[in-house]
Amino acid sequence: MRREVADIAAAAQKADGEGNRREARSSYERAIRMLTRDESEFAPALIRRIARSYTDDKMFDAAIDCLAAAQHLSRARGDTSGVAHAMNQMGDATLQRGDLEGAEAMYNKAQVLAVAAADAQLEAMVRQNLAVVAGMRSDH
Asked: How far apart are CA 134 and CA 140, in angstroms?
C-alpha cells in the first residue's frame, strides 16, 4: 500500500480508537477510493474495519452489508482467510444483535474457512467466540 493511503488508513484507525467512528469510516472510505488496481488486495480489510465501526455503533445492517462486500471481494481474489475474517465479524454483529443461533452458525462457517486457510490466529479467535456463545447459552 502506498504511503499516502497507509497514512489515511492509520488516521482512520486512530480516529476509530478515539471513538470518532464516523470520521474513521470517512477516512477508510477515502483510503479505499485511493487504492490502485495493484493495491486492491487491501480493500477487503479496510471494508472490514468500516464494518467493525458500524457494529460498534450498533448499526448492524450496515455492518453486515459491508461484510458481505468484503466477503465477495475476498472470494473473488481466492482469499479464504479474508472470507473467514468477514464471516467471523458477521458472527460478532449477529451476536450483538442478540441472535445466538445465527452467530453460532456464522462462527462455525468461519471456523471451517479458517482451518482451510490455515489461519491459526483466526481459528483461535473463532473458538473463543464459539465459547462465548456456549457460555451465553448456559446462562439462559
From this structure: 10
